[in-house]
């Protein structure tokens, strides 16, 4: 029963300057008694007018006090569904009716017309209010449907951390209806929200800051991840709440994690395999390297790569070949497209060498492919590069081991031959001679004993030779600086008796000091000089010469020679019986004899031992000869340590 509005004529009756929001019963108690107020209220509920006739009102206008009589009529204002929200009270001045009995009909009609017009005017206002209310309801309905149709979770939160509005996606996620949420604190939906990061973010948003959390786990379900915006809700320049918009990015987070794991595993695999990947975009000219590519090339930091940078650490000849091969493969790819329509061309594997600043050299194996556009235009190169330095080293060691194994097998075969022939033969002779001694008890057996002694001595020499060969093959000895001049002099002292018997002549040029084992090198020169003295029908003449030559020259004859090193070339030539040159390699094999045992003593192992020793010293040995014209043995020993 509070006054909402009073027109200018009514204001003096209400006796106060501002009657709005004042109780009508207090302002006009003589009219709106408790009984009258209850009747007015009852008529409003039944949508009926109610008139209070001829009410006396004392009021003042300025300094003048006036008395007047009014008919007061109340008219309900209707809202939709027939409910009254207010009533209009019309104060009709009937003082003239009270004081004058004969009020003219004309005045009555005019007043009624005004009342009808005013009533119609108020009715139009009421209709407009109802129309605006319907429009507002529709707008709210459309807005709610728009919010509900969003796949993002939307919640509006007030300063007291209570829900003002939520959408359907939010309801589904927290498994609560909006009736259970609206007006309730956010902790109803998120029990663990107290003190959480999200609550701290809300405080920033209430301070007017828009906050974006790109990746954050849900409070209710830590296995779910959201991309959330906290936007201040501004009304008349004031923050009245926060709009939280959350997009479920769980699958994106999982995919990114899987991708990160895959990239990490790929990097680890590339590092373990020393395998880098590269891509050259021909259209832009950019080159992309994987992390391992930088590591292979010895770069500690990443930097933009281009074709020039990618080849700057290559060996110059390899960089030139790489450029030429690239042009050649591009032409082949174009031809393959023209002939067969292929847009991908597999590039044959190739190997390149790179030199790192610290002096390290690497051997790299490159494989890749060329991609063309559907129109046949060059698009890009891509491939992988593997550091095969260690692999090649292992392969080389394996090859050497295989070669050594083959040599061992060959020696074993030779040993089997010796065991089954050369060693068995003297044993058979000894047994035969012993049997003859037993049969001829009364005869002189000294010739038989002499033969037995010779056979046993030959067996002893064979066994000693085999042991020496085995010792050279399997032992590892220390190297020192060895003066070959002293070695040759010692050999001449050991062979002094033989030299005098044969009246031999030995000439020796100045020999170098080399890195080697003194005992083994003594065996080499002792064996070679002994052979020159032994295999001779005339006065032996032996000449030892020496010169230094480059490793490149030696490599022309021996493929495994070190081209970065020089070699001492030492030749021992004689005027002996020589041998057929077709057997020049065979003589270095164990137990290989070119002459009969009866003509020249020996086990056939001496030159095998010589070759083993030279191999141990990373050198080479070769022989040349013609029957009856002497022989020449040449030894190459490394000139540096």
Topology:
Elements: H1 11-14, H2 24-27, H3 34-45, E1 50-61, E2 64-78, E3 84-93, H4 95-99, H5 105-148, E4 153-158, E5 163-166, H6 168-174, H7 178-181, H8 197-206, E6 211-217, E7 225-235, E8 238-248, H9 250-273, E9 275-281, E10 286-289, H10 291-296, H11 307-311, H12 316-340, E11 344-355, E12 361-372, E13 378-387, H13 389-420, H14 424-439, H15 446-474, E14 480-483, H16 484-494, H17 496-502, E15 505-508, E16 513-516, H18 518-534, E17 541-550, H19 551-555, E18 566-574, H20 606-616, E19 620-625, E20 631-638
Parallel strand pairs: 15-17
Antiparallel strand pairs: 1-2, 2-3, 4-5, 4-8, 6-7, 7-8, 9-10, 9-13, 11-12, 12-13, 14-16, 17-18, 18-20, 19-20
What does this structure look like?
This protein has 641 residues and is an alpha+beta fold. Helix content is 43%, strand content 26%. It has helices at residues 11-14, 24-27, 34-45, 95-99, 105-148, 168-174, 178-181, 197-206, 250-273, 291-296, 307-311, 316-340, 389-420, 424-439, 446-474, 484-494, 496-502, 518-534, 551-555, 606-616, and strands spanning 50-61, 64-78, 84-93, 153-158, 163-166, 211-217, 225-235, 238-248, 275-281, 286-289, 344-355, 361-372, 378-387, 480-483, 505-508, 513-516, 541-550, 566-574, 620-625, 631-638. It has a 5-stranded antiparallel sheet with strand order 5-4-8-7-6, with helices on both faces. A 5-stranded antiparallel sheet has the order 10-9-13-12-11. A hairpin with a 4-residue loop joins β9 and β10. α15 (446-474) runs parallel beside α20 and α16 crosses α18 (518-534). The radius of gyration is 59 Å and the shape is rod-shaped.
